[in-house]
Fold:
Amino acid sequence: MDDYPVIVFSDVTKIYSLYSGDVRALNHLSLEIQRGEFIAIMGPSGSGKSTLLNMIGCLDIPTSGEVSIDGNNIRTMNDDQLTELRRDVLGFIFQQFNLILLLNALENVQYPLILKTGQTGCTDRCKEILAAVGLTPDLWDHRPGQLSGGQQQRVAIARALVNDPDILLCDEPTGNLDSKTGTTIMELLTDLCKKQGKTIVMVTHDPRIAEYADRIILIEDGMIQGGDV
Amino acid sequence: MSNQRLFFGLAIRNIQIHWLRSLLATIGIVIGVVAISSMGILGNSLVLSVSDSLTDVGDSVVVTPHVSFHGMGSTGTDKRITDRQLEQIRRSAGNNEVVPVYASGDRVRIGREILAASIYGINPQDIPTLVSLGSGQFLRGASGVMVGAKLADENNLVVGSRLLIGDKETGVRVVGILKERGMGFDISPDNAVFTSDQWYQDFYDKKGYDQVIVKVKDLKDIDQVKDAIKAQLNRREDEVNVFDTKAILETIIETFGRISTFTMAIGGISLVVAGVSIFNVMMMSVMERYREIGILRSIGTKRAEVRSMFIYESLILGTAGSIIGGVMSFLGGYAAIAVMLGETSYLFNPSSLIQIPYGMVFGIATSLLSGLYPAWKASELRPIDALRHE
Structure:
C-alpha cells in the first residue's frame, strides 16, 4: 500500500457569498489524510464540516488554496473530469441514503457501474456486493420506498462500492437509523477500511459513532480546532 | 453507447411514473400534428381537385383582339381578328391546331322560355378539337346546332329539339349535345349554343373572329407558341392579347396552395401550444427531480448525460405523440376531404400523404426544441445545491 496522503488540503479557504454577507466556511484549513485511514470529522452545525466533505467529494471548489484528491488538483479540473473522479475514485454514503427512486435496489447499484463501463450486463458483481453488505436477494428488486432505512443504507453502501473507489465519503451515515442498525452499518464500514483498505472520511455528530474512526478531527469556524491532527 | 440506454430507460420510467401529465403533453402533440397534417392533406387535395377539373383546358393559347383606349372610342367590340392575322397565328403555331372562334351572347327561345346563352360559331371540323360529344352527333354542315350539357339539361333539350335564336327568332335544330366540361378560360361550352362558322357569319354578318384558340399538343411548347404569336402580331403595335390557360391555371393552383399553407400555419399554432405544454411538463420534471439530479451528479453522472436523459424524455413524448398524430391525421384527413370534397382518392396521392411525415417531423422537432432548455437547466444545476433541496 502506498503511503502518500490520498487527500491533501493546503491552506484552503471557502467563502460563500450570501445576501447577509460573506460566510467563511473554511478558513485557511490544511489537512492530510493517508490511504487506508478511517477519519471522523466532528463539529457543531455550521462549522464547515460538510463543506470540507463536499470538497473532498469534488462537489465544491475552494476559493483559495489547493485540494488534492488521489493526486489530482481539483482546482485545475473541469466539470467532466471532476465528475469522473467522483464516479471512479470516490464513493458517497449520505444520511438520507439518496437512492434513485426510479430504480430498484439492484439497478441502483448497477447505475454507477454502467456509467463507468458502459455495459449493462454486469449484474453478477452487483449481486455479489449487495450480498456482501447484507441485503438478502428477495429485496433486490424492491424500490427504495419499499425498503427500511437500514436496507436502503446497505444499498447505498453497495452503490458506493461498486466502482471499487479508494475513498468513501460518509455524511452522517447512521443519522437516520436506529442504534442497532447503526451499529451494524458502522461495523460494515470498519470492515471495508480494515479488510479492503478503503480510506473513509465520515462526518458525524455522534461521539459513539466517531469512536469507530482511527482519527477524529474537530472543526469549528472553518478551522481545525483539535482531535488527532 | 449503452450509457445512453441507461438514460433512455430512466426517461421511460419517469414518464411511466408521471403518466397522466405525460399523456396530456402527448395529446397536445397529437392535436398539433393532426392539425398540421390534416390541414395539409385537405389543402393539397383541394389543389389536386381544382387542377384535375381544370387540367383539360390547360393546354390552350388564346388570342383575342387588343382593345386599346383608342379602340374603345368607337363601337367597342368591333375590333376583331382578321384573316391576315389568323394566317400569321397559323404560321406561328407550327403544327398545333388553330381554331378561330366567333363568340357572342344572344337570346335563345326554347318553347316559351326565353333565356340568354353564349353563341359560338366554329368550323364544324374544329368543334371536336375543343369539346367532346355527349349524345347525338357533331355538326356536319352549315345547318343545325349543338348545345352545352347544362343548357340541354336545364331546358330538357334532346337531339331533335328546336331553338329560336336572336331577335329574329331564327329556328335551328339540335343535332348534338356536348359533354359537360366545366368553366374554361378559352370557351365555356356548358351553357352555350355551337353553330357552324358559316351559319354564324350569315346570321350575324360579322367579319373577323372574336378569338383564336391554339391547342398546344406538347405543354412544354406553350410558351414558345405564345412568344411566336406575340412576335408576329405585336411587332409594331399591340394588335392582339395572347394568354395561355396554363398560366392562369398555375396562378389559381398557386393561390390554392397559398390557402393551404395558410391553413397549415393555423395548424402550426396548435403545435406551438403543444410545444409549450411539453416545455411545461419538462420544467416540472426538472423541478421535481431537483434532488435526484443532485444525486445523479454526485455519484458520477456528467452534465451531458443528465441533459440526454431529459432530452430523451421530451423526444419520447414527441415521438409517441407524432406517431399517434400521424395515424390520426390519415383518418382525419380522410374525413375532412370526404366531407369537403366528396372525394377521397386525393388522400392517396403522394403529395397528400407526404403531409403526414411533414406533420410528424414538425411534432418531433417541436418537442425536441421544447425539451432543450429544461434539459440544459437540469444539467447546469450545481450538485450540492440540488442535494440540499428537500
Q: What stands out?
A: Chain B touches chain A at residues 1-3, 5-6, 10, 13-14, 17, 291-292, 295-305, 383-384, 387 (CB under 8 Å). The first strand of chain B starts at residue 60 and ends at 65. Confidence is low (pLDDT under 50) at residues 71-76 of chain B.
